Amino acid sequence: MSWEANVRRVVPYTPGEQPGERDVIKLNTNENPYPPPPGVIAAIQSIRAEQYRLYPDPDAGRLRQALADYHGLKKEQVFVGVGSDDVLALAFLTFFNSGRPVLFPDITYSFYDVWANLYGIPFEVRPLRQDLTIDPSAYMGGSGGIIFPNPNAPTGILTEPEDVESIVRANEDVVVIVDEAYIDFSGGNKSVVPLLARYDNLLVVRTFSKSRSLAGLRIGYALGGEKLIGCLQDVKFSFNSYTMNLPSLAAGEASIRDDVYFRKTLEKVIETREWTKQKLAELGFVCTDSQSNFLFVSHKRIPARELFAALKKAGIYVRYFPRPRIDNYLRISIGTQAQMEALTACLQEYLNQY
Ligand code: PMP
């Protein structure tokens, strides 16, 4: 018999392309178009060669404390990982063990079913409503756990905190994970972090990759009750003690301490998002009401697949998902104002010759 009979077979997640060429306009992976603040770079540069000899703090104590202070929680309520993908993968492994199906939307972050399949966790998808919003009544109990992003990806649509709370309340016997990767772009108080004071089955996951301009350093975190976070810590320490490297720990802490730069960058991205939404509407696109740093758009006449190819040819990379219900949409990350002007000019030119 071949060793191949005993291999764990998986269909991996496909991340957006990272093109080698420099002059591409890259709007395909929801990165931030602005660099991190100078304080973050200074924090990395201040690490002495001598320090690299040693293992980093396995407890990530300083970063966890900085995040706890920022969110008004205790350090024991904060878990950190190598991007939120790492945090989410460990959360699936830790919390979804009932044998009952885990629920998530049919249109959502396409890594969820990959992790479920990797671990052999049964799952069921719940269809979004016709208008692509999440239907809270589809998540009212009897499952092995629930996960969804808020705002959802790739639609960008926000579920109001009251609706999220109704889901958390109806599922106190399982863990509900709210993936807030894009919440900072929803302008203000839409996060469900305040619900942590009332529900011990809620886990909120966040990332430094989008709003904090640090996709390259891989920093993500989860917030929850002490017990929930303790369970995650136990699984992490059964897997790899030193997930967070020295530069990531230092940069993460410096980023959290610089709120002024953070807010300024957020404002710029949100302003450009609204400008782009308006401009695309004028060009005949239908946009969801995205509260994130990307738009999800469909043209009234021209197939998304064709626009995707035309943009790529012009050196503008966006994301296209050839999947049921969304195969006529493009997901476009918000770049700088100049990049979005180049995008809309390119689309305008293409539409003119149609
Ligand atoms: N959740 C959602 C909804 C995302 O879109 C992404 C980005 N691909 C992630 C989590 C993971 O981000 P990261 O691992 O960079 O923190």
Account of the protein in words:
With 354 residues, this protein is an alpha/beta fold. The chain is globular. Helix 3 packs across helix 6. Helix content is 34%, strand content 14%. The chain has helices at residues 38-45, 61-71, 83-95, 112-119, 161-169, 226-236, 246-257, 259-282, 304-313, 337-352, and strands at 25-26, 78-81, 102-105, 123-126, 145-149, 176-179, 202-207, 220-223, 285-287, 294-299, 316-317, 319-320, 330-333. The termini are far apart. It has a 7-stranded mixed sheet, with helices on both faces. The structure holds 4'-deoxy-4'-aminopyridoxal-5'-phosphate. 4'-deoxy-4'-aminopyridoxal-5'-phosphate is lined by residues 83-85, 109, 149, 153, 179, 181, 207, 209, 215, 220.
The strand count comes to: 13
Q: How much of the residues is beta strand, in percent?
A: 5-15%
Q: Give the ligands present.
A: 4'-deoxy-4'-aminopyridoxal-5'-phosphate
**Count of separate DSSP helical elements:** 10
Give average pLDDT, whole number.
96
What's a concise summary of this model?
Helices cover 34% and strands 14% of the residues.
Provide key terms for this protein.
7-stranded mixed sheet; 4-stranded antiparallel sheet; 34% helix; binds 4'-deoxy-4'-aminopyridoxal-5'-phosphate; alpha/beta; 10 helices; 354 residues
